[in-house]
Amino acid sequence: IQFVESGGGLVQPGGSLKLSCVVSGYTYGGYCLGWFRQVPGKEREGIAHIDSDGRTTYADSVNGRFTIAKDNVNNTLYLQMNSLKPEDTAMYYCATDQPSIVSCGSSLYTYNYWGQGTQVTVSS
Fold it and tell me: How far is CA 12 from the centre of its chain?
């Protein structure tokens, strides 16, 4: 499974960015897709998830500001980020794996396939 992430960059507070993640080589019928972020010295945070049925879950920290979406034709996962705050600054990663009996956004669910990350910096 291969990933190509893009869309990160520097943006002012209140601004928007859209991250993309092209996933190739995934051959399973169902899937979970997720966006995570990590700041050096802190734990990785799962912020948005979508399953093969289109169900989405969001972390409280981004709910209402970020939107996860997938394009099945182009095998691309997106994260639209609006109303960005300095505390959104992090390395952002996409991830995927097969679905399980727990939801994709559950703390009990484990992703095993990860993108290389794209840096998002929110600063004036």
Answer: 20
